[in-house]
Records
---
Amino acid sequence: MAEIELVNVQKTYPGRKEGPPAVDDLSYTIGDGQFVSLLGPSGCGKSTTLNMIAGLEDVTSGEILIDGQRVDDLDADKRDLAFVFQDYALYPHMNVYENIAFGLRMRKVPKPEIDQRVHDAARRLDIEHVLRDKPRRLSGGQRQRVALARAIARRPAVFLFDEPLSNLDALLRDQTRSELKLLHAELGATSVYVTHDQEEAMTLSDRIVVMSRGKLEQYGTPYEIYHRPATDFVASFVGKPRMNLLPARRGGAGRYDVAGSGLGVELPLSQPEVRVGLRPEECALRDAAPGDAHGTVKVIEPLGNASDVIVDLGQALFTVRVPGFSSVRVGDRVQVDTSSARLHAFDVETGRRLVD
Amino acid sequence: MSATTAPRVDTSAGSPRPPGPRPRRRRRLGTVGHRVLVALLLVYLLAPFVWMLVYSLYPSSALQQARPDLDPSLLTGASYARLLSDTSFLVPMANSAVVGISTTIICMVLGSACAYAFARYRFRGRSTLLLGMLTVQAIPVIVLAVPLFILLRAFGLYDRLPGLIVTYTAFILPLVVWMLVGFFDEIPPSLERAARIDGCNRLQIMVKIAFPLAAPGLAATAILAFITSWSDFFLAKVLTSTSASTLPVKTAAFQGLFAMDYTSAATAGVITAVPVLVLALVAQKWIIRGLVEGAVKG
Amino acid sequence: MSTVSRADLRRRRDLRFGVGLSLPAVAVVVLLLGYPMGYALYMSGFSWNDKLGSYHPFVGLGNYRDLLVDPAVHRALGRTLYFSVFTVLGGVALAVLIAVLLNVEFRGRTLVRVLLLVPWAVPPVVNGIMWKLIFDGSSGIMNTILLGTGLVDERVQWLADPGLTMNVLVFAELWKLLPFLCLLMLAGLQGIPTNIYKAARIDGANGWQRFRRITLPNLRGPIMFALIVQSMWSLKVFDTIYVLTGGSGGPAEGTTTINFLAYLTTFSNLDRGYGASLAVAAMVLIVLVTLMWVLLLGRRREDREEAR
């Protein structure tokens, strides 16, 4: 169990010194026993950060500390951590038992203990029956478990995961996700988990680090990320369907109008222009009332328990999630009701959150 | 005329242009067509060798008639018995084996380490060095014949097996390195990263992970090295005389400008060719991968 | 501060490891090939004929000047050109066509592909013997067949006539190299995704057009490699010539290529200096031909777009 601290960590790739750094001035602390996700689109620097914590890549400047000890100048095998790779990285020429035991053997753990730990990990992940098989005979899901077992058997202070579920099909992914959560509850080890899937990050994490283009966008609990996104990037990245972000112009004191739609909101701000954010599932469709947006239904996407209705407001599209199968039809004129929605506002230039 | 269901009769034997519709990969040729094709190809590939084999197993008088007499009762292994009991034939044969194996071992040891370094540690000038390896193939051996002769003489290695081994090593190493770099490149980097996290140092990664994974490629390259060493004629002729002579040299000696002992020549030819043929067929899948696919990517 | 130096330390250790692994091999090659090569160049600057005694004056580029005007060299170049055109261009062209034919499924396909390696694996010396057995004027099987089927009236002296000997040589070399080139082309063909042929079909391209506009451009890499490698092999041919002609280089020098001429000069005429210069010239020729192929066929930017 360990606490991980990043202090002004920076990574620039040699030969690309003119552009923005791959990782730009990251500073945060991952508490002991916490499950923290690094979430962001591809290229945002999350994998690079993970590799730096693991010691697979060098830190250009800044420090990484585990339990107060500087580790950024230690080799990967001297830091007490285990890594689960996206492609599992199982040694094809060794069977499952040897794959799991390999790291222990390299660390000169006594043989009886190796045997006990391997069986223990295999049992936990329900792969004891394939211990003598080679990886190529296993299914994708089984290989994934072997990768997990290999990490667990090490009993490290820190677990690092690099998008471990992205190679699984959707059904298996959901199943394994729940199992990961259970595993973390049992083992309680500090875990850092890289993913681009915001659903994964939300369901698994104690806290989430949202990154974009090498920079830290927000570090908070799932609740904070969802209900108080610090930037418009976080707001649009987290939450499905995507949050509606529309430009709005100041119409009078405390009042902003979304151009060409009739939608107006009250905000205690003074900027001439802001970006207003409204989540689709917090809005509703209904008949006309003053101050609401009028629009024409363009597309209806039924999901079963809800339907996403995309409304054309004239100069922008607005998505509303309504329960069940909606009775509206394409081409209907509707009004969007935002009265019960939480209002978000972001600065047009910096993207920073403007309201409470 | 893109017939999708009609069987295609291949009458193209000998025609220089490709047949009409571009054949789709899964389409089957007409039965007549494909039988003809296969038969022709097999004849092409095997006939010369088979004829030489036949020549070695029959008395030459029987074969030199207007209608060669292939009566099985005439089959005889006399030529083989004769050659294989003659020390002046056995010695070169043993020499070829010894030189071949030694060269292969040295080349594989030095070459695999070198290839691993090239594959794993990318550095500036790597592609030029690889290209250089290929360029060595461009050197006609004749250029180096006399200098090597003088060099070996100076070290007392003329007409001695170590001299030949050293020379072959120099020529075969570039080929070995070139092939092995391709095989080492195929190992996914995440495996080596996992090994790093598992606690391996550089040497352990190379020996415990890279080499076992490239094992088939290593085997094929070793076989290729042996084949190249065994088949060499020119260098052996120039750099050896009586004691270190090799099999190809001895085999070539059976031919003469005016008179020729055909049966012995055929027998010697078969004995010279069979070991490398067997090796090539055994390792063919991996040899093709190493040589051919390296080329396609290049 | 210490972060940077630690990373540098690791990089330095990496480098040391890499160099340590590769140095022995590189050293062996450079020393054992480089030194003789240098010596050969050195030798070619001397008039050094062991038949004429031990006086070796330095003549600088004199040998090279001589070989440029030597009629024997010109003839050898002519034969080399003839031989190379047929084996390189003919070989690669045939290989492409045969590979296209072999690229379909048929019974016995795997057997054929395995056996394709046989000619490649046969040692060149043995190749010479095999073809001598077939084409020998007095006892070769080819004459027996021709006489027996009545195609000719008397034995053809394949290996006694300079022109015929050269053609036998071309045939023998083609036999040996064609299957391997086919393997190269087959590998290239299998790298072409089948979908683009389907798309072309829908777009209305017929077989020949598909061959010209899809198959050939996508085979550029393997074809260039084959041309380069085969040029090298063809220019270096030696063993087969030796065995077919009894070490003489052919009736009336019929098969004396530039490479073989260098051999004869050095070892038969014992003219080491001139021979060395001929050998160097042969090497230069190989390099020039390779460069020619690279320049002619190297990927150009527009072609990269077109191939998409």
---
Amino acid sequence: MKAVRKDYVRPVDFKHGVVEMTHGGGGRAMAQLVEELFVAAFDNRWLDEMNDQARLPMPQGRLVVATDSHVVTPLFFPGGDIGCLSVHGTVNDVAMAGARPLYLTAGFILEEGFPLLDLKRIVESMAVAARAAGVPIVTGDTKVVEKGKGDGVFINTTGVGVVADGIEISGDRARAGDAILVSGTIGDHGVAIMSLRENLTFETTIRSDTAALHTLVAQMIEAVPGIHCLRDPTRGGLATTLNEIARQSKVGMRLTESAIPVKPEVAAACEFLGLDPLYVANEGKLVAICAAEDAEKVLETMRSHPMGRDGALIGHVVADAHHFVQMDTSFGGRRMVDWLAGEQLPRIC
Amino acid sequence: MKYIDEFRDGELARKIATRIREEADPARQYHFMEFCGGHTHAISRYGVKDLLPANVIMVHGPGCPVCVLPIGRIDAAIDLAMRHKVVLCTYADTMRVPASGGLSLMKAKARGADIRMVYSAADALRIAVEEPGREVVFFAIGFETTTPPTALVVRQAAASGIDNFSVFCNHVLTPSAIAHILESPEVRDLGTVVIDGFVGPAHVSTIIGSQPYEYFAEEYGKPVVIAGFEPLDVIQAILMLVRQVNEGRAEVENEFTRAVTREGNEKAKALVADVFDLRRAFEWRGLGKVPYSALKLKDEWRAFDAERRFDVQERSVADNKACECGAILRGVKRPTDCKVFGTVCTPETPIGSCMVSSEGACAAHYTYGRYSDRTHEESAGEIAAEVGAEVTAEGAAK
């Protein structure tokens, strides 16, 4: 009788391979990709259990959950890629409740034909970001769609965190008289992305600011537990975030243009493209609103953290039945900083 | 930012504003039309108006390329993309202009039309080169500033034998629009629109020079000061206009000397003259048919003319009845005089073109200036209820 041969599985060819429909089919190819790529990269005891779910201990305090889908084009950009972005984005969403992020989940939608080498780069970048943030990716999912039905790779991440009792940070807590602070220069991420769009190539040294902000938040809360609002001004930029908070809190805002930090390169690129940096996306900045008497302490704490070095006090909350965000221009006049209408489109002349 | 911040200097602005206040005669009013949407935008975005005394009043002009494009031309562009299945390349501003049947280029795109945003005419030509199997049409719009690049791509396409590229030409001319406004009954006879002078175009003038405005200064006795698009340019031009009015002068002065000469850009002008002919008349939104106010491709370049290639029919489509874009473009009304402004017509759901482009008078005022309209805002609720019904009924009838 012949002995049953030991299984031999040829390793995934990351160098030349591409995503195939079988990678999402639930068969051996999928199991192999999960094992050799995702489990190997994310490497933690929950994933090692190889279950369809992760069983986690119940933390003290209140649970905070946030989810975010990432569909950025291009996938790789100066300062980051869709992988680390998908970790930072969700870690930040959890952190903006004043919470400590604990775990992440990751769902991948891959397009048939997508190079495995790029996928590996993205997954490894996620792993590095998650490890640096101290937030493990504990469960995940992979699906493959036919060629032409996706954009290479879409990543959804969900984050779970915990917030201590007594911390009440919410977009509806801004009050007239409060101070508005931002943790650094605005518009870096959006301009870095735009510089690579196919019909817009321009040379720039601007890098995306993508970063996890939970340690900055932790420091700020330790200094001033009574911070009213925290939010990361991602899509739609600072202007959109402030309008959201103004509406939620039923207040108005008054900003000082000259106080808002913008890198000269970003200002120049926006000028050239006819864009307003106030509406350009950020991925590593936060807006904080706190009582006026706490402003100095929050600002000082912010500036002592590497993620908040360029932090600034940019305005204050006012009573306004119309919930307008207004700005005193450097020129000496006044303007509204309104909601963005549609997408921000460049002007003709 | 070098070469930019100098022209947005708040301290200098306050000095000029003080001069204007000192020199403007309190016994009279000064009405100046800023022709260009670029000026309208700068005035609103930097709050230039806040620095002016109450008797110096700015009137918005028609110089917004997207705003003056009539619905019929947008319809034709959509038709090219949807029926003729061309790749329609367009400047981004044009995407959201409302067309017939509740469509816009943006909505046509969502329904499957191949409409692509480009930053220049050259990008459109590049697409034609990269996709030789497709018909690529460049939706050419704009005043004299955007005309030379269109002329250039037509010549390039001809020189390299690219036969799947054409231009849907909607280029319009500034001087004829100014003449049309000065000839309009509201300005000439009825006196309902007072114009004491013009802030003259910035970028347009870099091409055509300051010479074409001399006619208006002489013939109509209206001072013209050509100004750049930075806020300091605008406020300086206003001071120069106040001085001309006070001294009884009507001259063409040039504040934008860093870019504009009397003759303009000879090379660009020659390029335009080589490729384009005058149209006998062209429909403008708000101004109606304006004689000799637009360009078309010359017969020798007919192969690149999308209108002839796809037999585009001229069709005139009336604006929404509630929309005051026409009167606003002529300076007869202000955005806040329009019943639908800020109620059913907003940048998200524009009824008229002036609410679309950031250079449009309505969009500029809505986006930057509406904090000053408290009383209007307060009454907006009732008006929205009243006019909303009317607009919806019209939409349904279409």
